[in-house]
């Protein structure tokens, strides 16, 4: 597959990076990495969807994001200094594949390629932008808009580029975690979308019927 995040590398270096990766396969519900474990590799998501989960101070679980093909995690492992630890657990929501790049291999490449350093900066900058956008959303956007945006993003992720209705095989509980709301309040938003013909609800799934309207609502 194409890896836009590797675009800053010269062709030879891009091939070298991919050649140095190890293909890893994960079954549904399998934990890819555990929160708190040493971070020693970058993972490029090749197929499947994965959840980014953290533990709260109260011992509960929170889902921060859903990753799909072309996404990545573990970029902090590429930084110099003391090896960092995983800031979140990554769990496969379905059968998934990643390409794992050891941090040591990346450092060797960085010593001879300026593009590798630019790649690291691009990865970190993209992550900061994503986190900043989420913080602004939580602070200044209402729950309806947050639900519309996350659901639109999920629909695009699960559509794989295909047109028409798309089934998002996630529970309302998980969607509530993603938007920082409660399940009852998120259900109210979804019920309004059902009444407008935008979505259908089923057990463990949300079907986005009218993607164009949802995109407009998401802004």
TrEMBL record:
Signal sequence residues: none
Domain of life: Bacteria
Matches recorded under InterPro entries: cNMP-bd_CS (IPR018488), cNMP-bd_dom (IPR000595), cNMP-bd_dom_sf (IPR018490), Env_Response_Regulators (IPR050397), HTH_CRP (IPR012318), RmlC-like_jellyroll (IPR014710), WH-like_DNA-bd_sf (IPR036388), WH_DNA-bd_sf (IPR036390)
Pfam families cross-referenced by the UniProt entry: cNMP_binding (PF00027), HTH_Crp_2 (PF13545)
Phylogenetic placement of the source organism: Bacteria, Bacillati, Actinomycetota, Actinomycetes, Propionibacteriales
Keywords assigned: DNA-binding, Transcription, Transcription regulation
Gene3D superfamilies: Jelly Rolls, Winged helix-like DNA-binding domain superfamily/Winged helix DNA-binding domain
All residue ranges annotated as the Cyclic nucleotide-binding domain in the record: 5-127
Keyword Cytoplasm on entry: no
Keyword set includes DNA-binding: yes
Protein name from the UniProt record: Crp/Fnr family transcriptional regulator
Organism of this sequence: Nocardioides bigeumensis
PANTHER family given in the database record: CRP FAMILY TRANSCRIPTIONAL REGULATORY PROTEIN, HTH-TYPE TRANSCRIPTIONAL REGULATOR ARCR
Residues of the HTH crp-type domain: 141-212
